[in-house]
């Protein structure tokens, strides 16, 4: 491709609305343009990257027996009502009506459609396992679309669904996909980590892993063990409860006046006690139910754990000050577990019963109890793992300290079990003629998001530094002079030679200064740059530069093509 | 691929709701399944055909300088309001609101999005011409979705948009695409015809061609000249007005009583005159405007010509009986051009002024005028070409008789001119620094519809007869026995051999009777079938059968792969 004919509008300035580096660079390098909030057009180079990732994903799915299909984006509401998700999915689901006023949605995932398909076609255990996938647009009505392709409203996903006879079969399919995902992100040239994850809105209770591309700018926090292979989304990571060194109180609990004290910080300072001795008491509402949640003062409550532990509410939130006033008779800052209403359920993180001499709110403005003992002075109905893990804690598996990293979620695999097959009746007859529900898994790769994640992980101050396997083109030829006939003719010769060797190459033949071309080459991030200047070419040499290392070498013009080819092959092997 | 592992559910019965043969065969051959009215899932074999057509389209677009991009399916209403199409597009446009109640539509075409993109990126004539295309889902809320992929609500299209400096540039881009489309449908192995067409809702006045795959079952009628290369959609074809041999009346026009007479047929019979002497008078409403339309009694009014000739109404329809009564003082069956209200515009087909002694309605129930003369007895405000062409008529270009054929529209090319670039301000500076509007064209291929059209044109009583270039697989190997080890092992050997030669092959290894496998092979329509039976294989031979001709030959097993390869290459050259 000649750059003079390529629609690749690069920008020197950072677009005002682009908050993260991948978004900035994708716009500046002319890979995407915004059509509306969260809706983008892929320009030629952006689309090439997308197609490359798609091709890698497709190969790895096919290699594991995945069969590619294509399901409709528009989905009838009836199926979502059958699965029960129509009413619970909430505002993120784009809904629309057709001219006959029938309801539809734009698919955020395709469990309903695929399960409907399979229940119509599968009769016997002999037809299982079945692994079906598609690569297609998905839709999510984000409250605040942002970060370019990282959190768009229309995005490209690969979603595969597995149907098995039993849990053992699901386990096998799951492992296949887990392995495939590792291959995919390795082949894309990315540094990633699979971590244990929460299944979220997709549902299913059989387990889930997320695949995180590691980058300091990542939205997600993950913990991983320095001693074993344990890794998890911080939101999901189980915690080992840690007792605080402390002595039991000598006497009864006491009510103390704490004027002006509102927060955990305030009370810690006012009483001059460490936060580890405080009980944080939070009144929550899950759907119609209200309950009191206790965690140690230095810890953070993990709402996802809380919701999972209590069975999964559609809506879970802190009770409003009005509700707190009504139930506890005080403001939210004064809530405590002592002498709570009889019917109120009290759930506590596993560390709370280990506390010996605690301080807590007294359900009375500007007062606290001190020398409080769990069990003696207040009741706990359920002890659960409810807190966020913290870096440096001991791994639950091996005890070695956990480390923290930031990551961008680019894939997730789920053991769905029979949630959808039971709801929609996707059954088969087993060897004995007994009707059973298919055991399902689902597996998604955020194809468009992987582009953004790759850039977050691979860039420098000058622009994108593409890993070779997903670069829009592998090599750019820059003519430092467009007046020098030898330069122009040799450039064209090398361009043809590289193309004939199968190298993906562009020739920057624009009538621009060399500096402009260099800047664009760095910004777009072609892994290899070949520069033809009058001086060096007079000696029969051209300059070959690696974008990543910045290393430059002079190469004989006649050896250039082969050398480029070799470097690319080497880079693709990694 | 092993058929035992392929999701290819074939059916013996014709699905009740499938009205046309392509729909029936796509469901029966296991290529698609319905998810909802007008919304389909492509199963693996159906998707392979789709991808093959996409690949051909992509190659031909790239070969002519087209650059592939990908635009959002969800489009903001603002852009449609800028172009003026939001209010006029009507019920076929799927509309939806996001959570902030902003309006969007699902793109039926992408003129707005692409023009918005180009106005942001193009500054100079040096950046033109620019040819941008995408292959993507399109949406149309059909009143009655039917015929499977022929008229779906979600379908795959390739749409290319060209941006040029001037009309001459547009003409060049248009010709490029016209040529590309000829290559595409030739390469798909289809018999097709490009015909002059009406631009319809896309707009533009610079001309348009449709590409019709010829099939008796086609929805569209086309006329083509037996003497020259003229061809047109029957709706669009211009007509040469033909005078009727007749003598002028001797006296004044007369009012005659015609009791019980309502239709053209009635009056022709009642007065014993040919229909060519009758004037058909129709009161129409175009948006807010009412006018009287006259055509000869034996002709059919062409509403598309009528609408184009009068400047294009958003809504054009016959006036209701109430409106006719109010304006003409009679029922619709009695309307005539004599003594009409003064302000009422009268437009007539070019044949009407050539009539000498006509009969027409008298604007009075059960009465007609006879011996009516145009000009003398009634006025005509505009004479236009308003009728449908008929087979056998003389070609306007060369005079030879026109013939009729049925076709399925699979592509259309449009000269848009500056309709969208003016509305949205997609301008550039020319050589002299003068700001001008880009001159646009747009060019669509119905990729998914081409599958259906290919089947309408290529099938027999047993199933689909794929043209080699778009067959889901080129060859199927059938083991007539699954008990005979020699058969099974040779089949596997040939399967591997064919794959290594790059042949797209499936091995029907299912534990089914040979008859079932043959029926499925014919139904799915693999161009070549290789059968391994115990008897022939004992002699070292296998049977090779061509689906299209039904010709069968015995081939030495060791020569089979090479022969199949040769036949495929030959078939792909056509």
From TrEMBL, chains A, B:
Upper taxonomic lineage: Bacteria, Bacillati, Bacillota, Clostridia, Eubacteriales
Record's keyword annotation contains Cell inner membrane: no
Residues annotated as domain Aminoacyl-transfer RNA synthetases class-II family profile: 38-467
Alphabetized Pfam families for the sequence: HGTP_anticodon, tRNA-synt_2b, tRNA_edit
Enzymatic class: ligase
GO molecular function terms noted in the UniProt entry: aminoacyl-tRNA deacylase activity; ATP binding; catalytic activity, acting on a protein; proline-tRNA ligase activity; transferase activity
Family matches, as Gene3D superfamilies: Anticodon-binding domain, Bira Bifunctional Protein, Domain 2
Compartments reported by the entry: Cytoplasm
EC number(s) reported in the record: 6.1.1.15
Main location: cytoplasm
Subunit organization: Homodimer.
Catalytic reaction annotation: tRNA(Pro) + L-proline + ATP = L-prolyl-tRNA(Pro) + AMP + diphosphate
Domain notes: Consists of three domains: the N-terminal catalytic domain, the editing domain and the C-terminal anticodon-binding domain.
InterPro entries (alphabetical): aa-tRNA-synt_IIb, aa-tRNA-synth_II, aa-tRNA-synth_II/BPL/LPL, Anticodon-bd, Anticodon-bd_dom_sf, Pro-tRNA-ligase_IIa, Pro-tRNA-synth_IIa_bac-type, Pro-tRNA-Synthase_IIa_type1
Name of the protein this chain belongs to: Proline--tRNA ligase
GO biological process terms held by the UniProt record: prolyl-tRNA aminoacylation
GO CC terms: cytosol
Keywords in alphabetical order: Aminoacyl-tRNA synthetase, ATP-binding, Cytoplasm, Ligase, Nucleotide-binding, Protein biosynthesis
Similarity field: Belongs to the class-II aminoacyl-tRNA synthetase family. ProS type 1 subfamily.
Function: Catalyzes the attachment of proline to tRNA(Pro) in a two-step reaction: proline is first activated by ATP to form Pro-AMP and then transferred to the acceptor end of tRNA(Pro). As ProRS can inadvertently accommodate and process non-cognate amino acids such as alanine and cysteine, to avoid such errors it has two additional distinct editing activities against alanine. One activity is designated as 'pretransfer' editing and involves the tRNA(Pro)-independent hydrolysis of activated Ala-AMP.
């Amino acid at each position: 491709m000649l750059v003079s004919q390529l629609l690749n509008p690069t920008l020197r300035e950072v677009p005002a609305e682009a908050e993260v580096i991948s978004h900035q660079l994708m716009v500046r390098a002319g890979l995407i343009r915004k059509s509306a909030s969260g809706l983008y057009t892929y320009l030629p180079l952006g689309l090439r990257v997308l197609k490359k990732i798609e091709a890698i994903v497709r190969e790895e799915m096919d290699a594991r027996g995945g069969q590619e299909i294509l399901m409709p984006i528009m989905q009838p509401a009836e199926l979502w009502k059958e699965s029960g998700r129509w009413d619970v999915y909430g505002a993120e689901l784009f809904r629309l009506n057709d001219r006959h006023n029938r309801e539809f949605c734009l698919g955020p995932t395709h469990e309903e459609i695929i399960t409907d398909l399979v229940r119509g076609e599968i009769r016997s255990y002999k037809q299982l396992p079945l692994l079906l996938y598609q690569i297609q647009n998905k839709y999510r009505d984000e409250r605040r679309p942002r970060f370019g392709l990282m959190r768009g409203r229309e995005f490209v996903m690969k979603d595969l669904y597995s149907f098995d006879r039993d849990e053992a079969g699901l386990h096998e399919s799951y492992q296949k996909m887990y392995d495939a995902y590792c291959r995919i992100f390795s082949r894309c040239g990315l540094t990633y980590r699979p971590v244990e994850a929460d299944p979220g809105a997709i549902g299913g209770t059989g387990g889930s892993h997320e695949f995180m591309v590691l980058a300091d700018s990542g939205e997600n926090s993950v913990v991983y063990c320095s001693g074993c292979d344990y890794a998890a989304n911080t939101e999901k990571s189980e915690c080992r409860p840690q007792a605080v060194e402390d002595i039991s109180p000598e006497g009864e609990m006491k009510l103390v006046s704490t004027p002006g004290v509102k927060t955990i910080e305030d009370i810690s300072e006012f009483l001059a006690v460490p936060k580890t001795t405080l009980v944080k008491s939070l009144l929550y509402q899950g759907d119609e139910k209200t309950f009191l949640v206790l965690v140690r003062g230095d810890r953070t409550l993990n709402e996802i754990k809380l919701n999972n532990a209590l069975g999964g509410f559609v809506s879970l939130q802190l009770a409003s000050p009005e509700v707190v006033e009504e139930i506890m008779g005080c403001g939210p800052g004064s809530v405590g577990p002592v002498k709570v209403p009889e019917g109120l359920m009290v759930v506590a993180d596993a560390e709370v019963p280990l506390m010996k001499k605690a301080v807590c709110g007294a359900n009375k403005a500007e007062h606290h109890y001190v020398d409080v003992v769990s069990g003696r002075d207040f009741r706990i109905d359920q002890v659960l793992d409810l807190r966020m893990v913290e870096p440096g804690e001991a791994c639950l598996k091996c005890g070695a300290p956990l480390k923290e990293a930031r990551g961008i979620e680019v894939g997730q695999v789920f053991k769905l079990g029979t949630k959808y097959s039971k709801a929609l009746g996707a059954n088969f007859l087993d060897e004995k003629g007994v009707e059973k529900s298919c055991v399902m898994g689902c597996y998604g790769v955020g194809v468009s998001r992987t582009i953004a994640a790759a850039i977050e992980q691979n860039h420098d101050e000058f622009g994108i530094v593409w890993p070779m396997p997903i670069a829009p083109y592998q090599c750019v030829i820059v003519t430092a002079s467009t007046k020098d006939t030898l330069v122009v003719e040799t450039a064209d010769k090398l361009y043809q030679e590289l193309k004939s060797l199968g190298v993906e190459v562009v020739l920057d033949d624009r009538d621009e200064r060399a500096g402009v071309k260099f800047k664009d080459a760095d910004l777009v991030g072609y892994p290899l740059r070949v520069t033809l200047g009058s001086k060096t070419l007079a000696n029969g040499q051209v300059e070959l530069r690696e974008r990543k290392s910045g290393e430059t070498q002079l190469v004989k013009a006649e050896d250039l093509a082969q050398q480029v080819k070799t470097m690319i092959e080497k880079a693709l092997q990694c």
